[in-house]
Amino acid sequence: MSAIDELITEFAKLPGIGRKTAARLTYFLLKQPTEASRRLATTIEHVAERVSPCSVCGNLSEVDPCEICTDPRRDGSLLCVVEEASDITAIERSGEYRGLYHVLGGRLSPLDGIGPDDLRLQALEARVGNGTPVREIIVATNPSMEGEATATLVRGVIANPAIRVSRLAQGLPVGGDLEYADAVTVAQALTARREMSS
How far is CA 84 from CA 20, 121, 194, in A? Predict the structure, then answer.
């Protein structure tokens, strides 16, 4: 296999990158000055060496515990459970949440061979059971079949009745057209409807 084919194959392993896009990326890099390719390779190497999961929450960080876990301005009584560390970025962008996180490291997917033992559920149980004053757990798994099954599993893990377990609201997105929404989205929007104030 040639060096070009090898790079195309490596790029094609990335999520959302097909063989054609991988080839475009490869030829783009080959047109750049050698220093640009070296800079990219060095950056990837540094990320691989420096970034690892936080021992407390599972977020990806250069420090352990991560910046969020050690931030004294965070509300330690709120815990948001997400599937992947990348989900934290989306929630943080909203600017509305000031609690802590727990990353499961995936979602239940029996067809892909991912079961309860493959998720960080024991770490979640330990965090909730170690005397930390958690009053609410917000389950922020994706609104898919696997995400719903994972949310149900998380709910079952929280044995303490004093802890409120909530789920992110789901339904129609702002700016979305009803005619283009799928049946599951419409059903969730109807179930999660709320009274309009006058």
Answer: 27, 13, 29
